[in-house]
Design brief:
This protein is mostly helical and 118 residues long. It has one domain. Helices cover 81% and strands 0% of the residues. The chain contains four helices and no strands. The radius of gyration is 15 Å and the shape is elongated. The mean pLDDT is 87.
Length: 118
């Protein structure tokens, strides 16, 4: 059950995130967009969802919040230097959707195991 939830959150969650951020990605100026940004976002998303899922599923939402904060602080300079708001919208929608998927999967696994949601 836990492994299924993990795989669902990390890899199937990528399909959900990609669907949500597609319009924002397409709106990026050509020099900002591209395959490199798409691959980087995919890999960062896998790591982000894996960490958040693990922390939520093990009942440590504080650690999940710390992982989210660290990722946000790392991306902040990159988002700030963009003149166009398309990139910050792309990052924000990707991050929030990714978190929603990971937290939902983590809570679902906890409930399926008979544990309190959080």
């Amino acid at each position: 059950m836990t492994l299924s939830g993990f795989l669902l959150a990390v890899f199937a969650g990528n399909l959900i995130v990609a669907r949500v951020v597609r319009p924002y990605f397409n709106a990026l100026p050509t020099q900002e967009g591209g395959v490199g940004l798409l691959h980087l976002g995919t890999y960062l998303g896998w790591i982000e969802r894996a960490l958040v899922f693990i922390f939520i599923a093990t009942g440590q939402p504080e650690a999940a919040a710390l992982a989210i904060t660290v990722k946000s602080l790392v991306r902040l300079p990159e988002v700030r230097e963009q003149r166009d708001s398309s990139f910050s919208q792309y990052v924000m929608m990707g991050t929030l959707t990714s978190l929603l998927v990971a937290v939902s999967a983590g809570i679902a696994v906890r409930i399926a195991l008979g544990l309190p949601a959080l």
